[in-house]
Amino acid sequence: MKKTLYFLLFLVFFNGFSQDKKFQGQAPITIVPTTSLPVQKQWKGEYTFENPDITFSNDFDGARLNGIVKNDDGSFTALITSENTPVNPSPWYAFKVWSKSPRTIEVMLTYQQGAKHRYFPKLSMDGLRWTPIDLTDYKEYEKGAADFGAGSLPVKVRLKLNVGQTPLWVAGQELQTLKHMKDWIDEISNKKFVNQQVIGKSTEGRDMHVMTIGKEKRKQMVMVISRQHPPEVTGFLAMKSFIETIASESRLAKKFRKKFTVHVVPLMNPDGVDNGHWRHSKGGIDLNRDWSNFNQPETRAVRDFMEDRVATTNGKFYFGIDFHSTWDDIYYTVDPKLKGNMPGLVTDWLTAVKKELPNYEPNIKPNDELIPTAVSRNYFFIAHGAEALVFEVGDNTPRDFLHEKAVVSANELMRLLLER
Ligand SMILES: [Zn+2]
Questions:
Q1: What's the pLDDT at 250?
Q2: Which residues form the Peptidase M14 domain (predicted)?
Q3: In CATH, which of 2.40.50.100, 3.30.590.10, 1.10.274.10, 3.40.630.10 is domain 178-419?
Q4: Which strands form 168-171's sheet, in the order they lie side by side?
Q5: Residue ranges per domain, the chain?
Q6: Please, what is the average pLDDT of the chain?
Q7: CA 87 – ligand 1 centroid, Å
């Protein structure tokens, strides 16, 4: 009897404990003006030091390194700053470094006032294949005590880097620029049932791409977007696996494509990504606050595209999903008591995903305050009746699990949409 009591107490304690540890989600959306604001253009080029001969470069798309100095002890201090302020705490960094002869250098990453180090460093020798830095080469300073959020972060970190003549790439996440995205959609567009088009230009004149899987004229449509926020690479990676599953040769995918057409905007913020922004567009705005005002060309292009598809096909969007990254995996859904074009779809879907992924407990935060629409999910639901959600992937979610979850999610979604 006593043993059972202890066990029950343990369960109560353990559950309470694990719930405290769970990411509680971000604070409610703040409605802000979305007319363009000035953005600081990053100086691009090479920083070269002598004795020893070391060069740092931010001269590539997606780079962010705002300054670097050599200290008296031979180590380096890098400064990383944002495109403008105020800005969410997601300090993106990416640079290359090389030296004439092989050596080990130490680089301290520091940030502008109020910002802390967030993204665990990834290294690459070719800009394509990335591995996290070895823990023994990484040291944190003044780390916060919280489990999640800015309060959990160190103020600065020191990296030990082995450099030689071949440039070493250092970045907050795997580098995924407009060029990487275009290569990806070009490859998928080789399939005869996939097409791509440009639906507009960003503030700085980059193309806004849409990839369409399935017949263009079909009335039953799904909308997928990703990367409104430049550093949110894990959400982008999940979107890729999700879309690859829908465009695959599986029996389910083939059957699905006979009934539904999926439109994808894989890169909502090409200027922000290629300029190495922390969060905003070249208009200096969080694009995911502009889905009621539509002051920015990027959100306008997608709104006009969706309205055009509805007008041209006389059809409907049944489902809309926006991929992001945050501190931990979480789904921001529309409160199930609000009914769109397929009531219950998102609830059934997340239940099915949980069933297929043992030991996975989805963290779901429903929302019923959808007006003003401001964010994409609310626009999908309010303007189109699409059952909608934000699919957030943790910054540090293991990449194999991220992939597995996206594949299961795509399969379960196709199955449920076909059943209805
Ligand atoms: Zn985001």
A1: 98
A2: 174-420
A3: 3.40.630.10
A4: 46-49, 54-57, 94-99, 168-171, 122-124, 131-132
A5: 46-171, 178-419
A6: 94
A7: 12
Q: Distance, CA 2 to ligand 1 centroid (Å)?
A: 49
Ligand 1 centroid–CA 52 distance in Å is 41
Q: Residue 288 gets which letter from DSSP? A: G
CB 320 within 8 A of CB 390: no
pLDDT at 21: 66
Confidence of residue 18 (pLDDT cuts 50, 70, 90): very low
167 Cα to the center of ligand 1, angstroms: 30
The whole-number pLDDT of residue 30 equals 84
Q: Give distance in angstroms: CA of 76 to centre of ligand 1.
A: 31
Exposure on the CB side of residue 340, measured as CA atoms within 13 A: 29
Cα(346)–Cα(352) distance, integer angstroms: 10
Question: Any idea which fold 46-171 has?
Answer: Immunoglobulin-like (2.60.40)
Q: How far is the CA of 249 from the centre of ligand 1 (A)?
A: 31
CA of 244 to the centre of ligand 1 (A): 22
